Amino acid sequence: MAKPSVRITAATRGAFAARLLAWYARHKRNLPWRRDARDPYRVWIAETLLQQTQVATVIPYYERFLARFPNVRALASARLDDVLKAWEGAGYYARARNLHRAAKEIVARFGGEIPSTVEELLTLPGIGRYTAGAVASIAFERDVPVVDGNVTRVLCRYFKIESDPKNAQTQKKLWKLAETLLPRGRAGDFNQALMELGATVCVPRKPQCAACPLRRSCRARQLKMQDRLPTKRAKKKLPHHQVAVGIIWKGKRILIAKRFARDLLGGLWEFPGGHREKNETLARCVARETREELGIEIAVGAEFAAIDHAYSHFKITLHAFHCRWVSGRPRAIGCAAWKWIAPRDLARYAFPAANRKIIARLV
To answer: At 98, phi and psi to the nearest 5?
Structure first.
């Protein structure tokens, strides 16, 4: 495919920004994080939540998180378990762990004040080029660009960029384009306007070209290519795993285990279990995994539920079995911690989504 080659004149840059900003002033959505856009903490939390998550989904999580941790110091002083519980359901839990770690560093290194430059922001856990640019431009009015999926779509269509947008060279060109188009002194509004246009008008399927302020100069629209850009990579078939877990009873209490912080879904609680091995029954899988993880013997009973769940890179069917503790004192061998709890207390702990579906049926 052709490499993106774009020449932007001062007139082109000025018209692009003027039309986009005028449109944004009339059509921007009333989102909770825009009501105090100069608060870098609120911008940071919002932009972190918005990574790989739709706006409508984010709003209740944002409001709940801010109510629980209203500022950097509150977040830094919180227990990780409480942070993960407040994040529960939002997914991609590494974001919550990184927020917690970064808040601690902001207090220790910056006196509790979120740094204002991209360079300093990039030194914090979980903050990449996009989030750093969003916080610096929106909260601190720094003249720096942002490029996310929405911005990528607008630029690829407007300038007819046909190369793979995930290619490193194309990414470099997109960031350069975004920087070149940036009107000095208006970076915050301009960046939000670009993202807003991609989210509400220049959408992935059936873009609303008639409502676009940039339609007259959009190369993709002129050539009727808007439905073909940006170029999409062929989707790979996701692997599907069978996972078996035990709802392990000892009297009226249930055993739960905490995942290692380094693992996928690290820091969350779960029902003990794991991936089924080749030629292994699901019931034997539960018994083996529980022995390896906690050092106890159990009697595996009837299957209680089978939950299908998809992650970004794989799918699982989670089989939950009612089990009975037989012998041994639990030890944290293949997990970070364990607890015997009453079923009514399950709601106090942060669980992955698939486990929460089991809990909903259980209680």
So the answer is: -70, -35
Q: Is residue 231 part of a domain?
A: no
Q: What is the rounded CA–CA span in Å between residue 188 and residue 196?
A: 12
Q: Are residues 213 and 252 in the same domain?
A: no
Alpha carbons 268 and 205: distance in angstroms, whole number: 35
Among this protein's residues, is 289 annotated catalytic?
Answer: no
Angle at 167 between CA 143 and CA 124, to 5 degrees: 45
| Strand residue runs (E) in the chain | 240-250, 253-258, 269-270, 273-275, 297-310, 315-327, 337-341
**SS3 of 185, please?**
coil
Give the range of the structural domain holding residue 196, as residue numbers without chain letter: 10-222
Active site residue: 47, 196, 289, 293, which one? 47
pLDDT for 1: 36
CA distances from 57 to 50, 100, 185, 297 (A): 9, 21, 31, 41
Residue 4 pLDDT? 41
Single-letter residue type at 348: R
pLDDT above 90: residue 190: yes
- 181 and 16 Cβ atoms separated by less than 8 Å: yes
